[in-house]
Amino acid sequence: MDEWSSGEIYESYVGRWSRLVAKEFVAWLDQPEALTWLDVGCGTGALTSTILSTASPAAVLGVDRSAGFVDYARKTVQDERARFEVRSAEELTDESFDVVVSGLVLNFLPDRVEALRKLRSIGKTVAVYVWDYADGMQLMKYFWDVVGDLRPADRDQDEGLRFPFCSAEGLEGLFTEAGFADVTTRAIDVPTVFASFDDYWKPFLGGQGVAPAYLRTLDESAQAAVRDVLRDRLPTEADGSIDLTARVWAARAVS
C-alpha cells in the first residue's frame, strides 16, 4: 500500500528531510572529484542535487520508476551534468559507474539482495541509506504508534514492523549476502522541526508514501481520530512548533 506520483506532495512529506540526510551522506562517502555517479530511486532529486552541489561529479544519472518524480527532478535540478530516466531498480543497464547510491529505496525492492548484487556489478563504490522506521524516524513512528493503538488490526501496516532490516546489522547482513566485504555502516540523524501541527499533519493527507496512502484508505471519522490522538501525543512547544528528529541507517562498501 503506497503511492509515488507527485513530487511536490512528497517533498512536503519526507523529501525536505531527505535533503538534510543527503548532505551528511555524501560528505560521509568522501569521494574524489570528477567521478560518474548513479542515483537509483532518485525520487525528486534530493540526493542527486546534493551530489552535484557538494561532490563535484563528472556526471550523475538519476533513475526512478515514478514518472511524476522524474518530471519534478528534471524541472528542479538544472545542471548539465545531470540526466534523469524513468526506470526501476530492476531495469538497470550494465553501464558502469564510479559510485552507485540509493536513498530510501532498498526496503521497497522485492529482492533486496539481488538488487545489491546488481549495484555491485555496475558500481565501484556502492552506498545506500534507509529510514530507521522502528525507532528513529519519529514523524512516522508517532503516526504508526497511534494507528496501532486505535486500530490494532492494522498494526501490520507499520513500516517499522514491515522493514525490520532497516538497521546497521540488517544492512550489513544484506550487503554481505550480496557479496560485499568490509561493509561500513552508520546512523545519520537530522532535525525535523514542524512550525505547527498542521505543518506536520497536512503532508499525511497527500497520499504520497506508505503512511499517507494508508491514511487515505480510512473514512473521515477514522482519519479524524488518528489526527486528534496525534495532536495530543506529539511533543508540542509553547509556540505550537513540534521538534522531532529523523534517523537513517547508511551502509557503504567497495565492489
From TrEMBL:
Stretches assigned to the Methyltransferase type domain: 38-121
Top-level taxonomic group: Bacteria
Family annotation (InterPro entries): Methyltransf_11, SAM-dependent_MTases_sf
UniProt keyword list: Ubiquinone
Transmembrane feature ranges: none
Pfam families: Methyltransf_11 (PF08241)
Name by which UniProt lists this protein: Ubiquinone/menaquinone biosynthesis C-methylase UbiE
